[in-house]
Each structure stands twice: as C-alpha cells, then as structure tokens.
Amino acid sequence: MDLSAHPSVSMLLTKTLSNSGKLSLTYVQSHISVSIKTFSQCKHHLNTLRRFSCQSFQRKSGSLSSQRNSLGLCGALGAPAPCRKFSTNTVMAKSKFDYVRQFEIDDPCLPNCWIVIRIDGKGFHKFTEAHNYMKPNDERGLGLMSCAAQRVMNEFKEIVLAYGQSDEYSFVFHKNCQVFNRRASKIMTNVVSLFASSFTMYWPRYFNTQELQYPPAFDARVVLYPSDENLRDYLSWRQADCHINNLYNTCFWKLVQEKGLSPAQSEARLRGTLSSDKNELLFSEFNINYNNIPELYRKGSVLIRNKELNGPEKTMTSNNEDKTRYLKSEQKKALASCLVLHCDIIGKKFWEEYPYILSDK
C-alpha cells in the first residue's frame, strides 16, 4: 500500500519533512503504517465487542432478528446501527371501552379549607327500637359510637378532632391535609365505611346481651370551612343542637315513663315551650336539675389527640407470639391516644387549653 498517495498522509509527510530535514521518508512511512495498523485492529475489536453485546441482549430478550428490527440496537452484522433512546415508559393496553372513564369526575376539596365529614345514622329511630335502646339516652350506644370514631381517628392521622352526639359524628381533617389528594368522595366513603364496619365489629363489646338484628347504615356528607372561626361555629352549632335535643328528649321521656302520657300527649305538652320552660318542668315535676345530668348527654363527646402518648415507634419482633402481643398493645395505645372529653367547646377555654388543634401543620 502506497501511503504517500493518501491525501492526509501526503499532507502529514510534507509538513514533517519541511519541519525536520533529518527524518527520512521511509522512517516516517513505517511509523505511520504501524499507527494505521494499530488503529484498524482497535476498530475491529470494537466492532466485535459491539456485536457480542447486541447478541447477548437479544438472546435474553427474545428472537435475535425480531429484536434487531424492533429495538434497532444493531444493524447488519459487523456494522453498528444508530443508537435509539431507550425509555422505560410503557403504555397500558387499552380497549374500546376505555372512553367511559371520561364520565368520571374529579372532586378535589378546595385548598386551605377545613374538611368536615359528618356521618349520621340512617333510620336510627327504627334501629334503636329494634335493639331496645334505653330512653332518652343509652350509654352503651353512645360508647359504641365513640369507639367507632376512635377507630376512624386511628386510621386517619389527618383528623385533628371529632365531635359526636346522638347518632352522628363529625370528623375534622386538617386544612392542609393531602389525604387521597383531597378528593371529597374518596375521603367521605372511606370514613363512613370504616365507621359503619367498626360499629358492627365492636357491637358485642357494648351490647353483649343484645344480638344485632340487622346491619346499621350511615350516610355522610362533606362540608368545607375556609376559616378557623367558621369551623368553631360549626362545632358550636352541633353542640348547641345536642343540648336542645337532649333537653327535649329528657322532658319527653319523663312524661311518658313517669307520668304515663302517650307519645302524642307528651309531644303536645312540650309544643311551643322554651328551654326555660323545660328546665322548670324537670325541676318542678321530677325534681331534676338539668345541669346535674351527665355532661355526656348534655354536651356530647369530643375526641382529640393525646399529644403526651405520641412517643417513639417500637420495633416489631419476628416471633409470631410477640408480634401478636405487639399489635394488641399498639391497638390499645392507639385507642388511648385519643382523649374522649365531655366538655364545652362553644367558649374559648377549650381552644385555649388545646391550641394545637387549630395550629398549622
């Protein structure tokens, strides 16, 4: 091969000879020949390595020919094909029915708003009659409601407070929470379904002599409150409702149970009366001071987090017996982490005593 005939080599020779007359043409040609030979060997080994890599990948992935055509990792044997950008993104298989997803509606709650989920017993007048609830208040039923509410609070750490009275409970999610991406329907259905299942599960604990006749049902709604004042007014409204209903029911059932009036007569007797009239009726005819009635009945139940019990997490052991014991202790701790209070939440004292409830997270 005449190296001097190559344009690049000829230019290199001319430049080299012009710079140094001491170098002979034969000497330069021999060194250039070695360099070109070494370069050719390296290029050959590189192509061999590339072909080997392509073949190894194709043997793992499937047919050699089909993979070469589909992935384009290598072209004809001995000549590398241009590289393609590899992506891990996959497109899920779709059917012709996928269009129905367009009818689904996202319902995110407004940001920076307190989310309140209020659940209410469906047809509980009939339910309490069928299960022999004591009138006007059944401590077992109220305790069961609070137990189910504690189970909900244990599941959803974003709940900062819950308030319950009669057959209803309100759960307050922090205004900055991101549970279920703040989807109203998702939050509401999870809360009400867990509450209903917990109510049924813990029924024997409170009504051990009364068998559950049929499954209870609860409805639910989502309400948003943009300010702390709005939220406090909502909770004050529910507690005021508790007081009004309990005062009426206490008078109503006293007239039925101790005076022998029929429900219709008792209702007629109380129609149009004020709170002061009902208080006077209880004191004058039954020697009852309404303020001495347990606060559970007059003010309902307030569930908040017990900050003192939120300690470091424990490590679970591998032993099955120890694991079961650990889970039971954690369940008891979770239930104990909720304080059940029967106090006034309309005034400022409660909110000053527990300022962390409304604090920013």
UniProtKB/TrEMBL annotation:
Query: Needs which cofactor?
Result: Mg(2+)
Member of which family? Belongs to the tRNA(His) guanylyltransferase family.
What is its quaternary makeup? Homotetramer. Interacts with MFN1 and MFN2; functions as a guanyl-nucleotide exchange factor/GEF for MFN2 and also probably MFN1.
Q: What class of enzyme is it?
A: transferase
Name of the protein in its database record: Probable tRNA(His) guanylyltransferase
Alphabetized, the UniProt keywords read: GTP-binding, Magnesium, Metal-binding, Nucleotide-binding, Nucleotidyltransferase, Transferase, tRNA processing
Which sequence ranges are marked TM in the entry?
none
Domain tRNAHis guanylyltransferase catalytic, residue spans: 97-226
* Domain of life according to the entry: Eukaryota
As its record notes, the protein acts as a catalyst of: a 5'-end ribonucleotide-tRNA(His) + GTP + ATP + H2O = a 5'-end phospho-guanosine-ribonucleotide-tRNA(His) + AMP + 2 diphosphate + H(+)
Could you tell me which InterPro entries the record lists for this protein? Answer: Thg1_C_dom, tRNAHis_GuaTrfase_cat, tRNAHis_GuaTrfase_Thg1, tRNAHis_GuaTrfase_Thg1_sf
What is the species of this protein? Biomphalaria glabrata (Bloodfluke planorb)
Explain the purpose of this protein: Adds a GMP to the 5'-end of tRNA(His) after transcription and RNase P cleavage. This step is essential for proper recognition of the tRNA and for the fidelity of protein synthesis. Also functions as a guanyl-nucleotide exchange factor/GEF for the MFN1 and MFN2 mitofusins thereby regulating mitochondrial fusion. By regulating both mitochondrial dynamics and bioenergetic function, it contributes to cell survival following oxidative stress.
Q: Spell out the PANTHER family in the cross-references.
A: TRNA(HIS) GUANYLYLTRANSFERASE-RELATED
Q: What is its EC number?
A: 2.7.7.79
For molecular function, the Gene Ontology terms on record are: GTP binding; magnesium ion binding; tRNA guanylyltransferase activity
Q: Which residues form the Thg1 C-terminal domain?
A: 229-346
| Any GO BP | tRNA modification
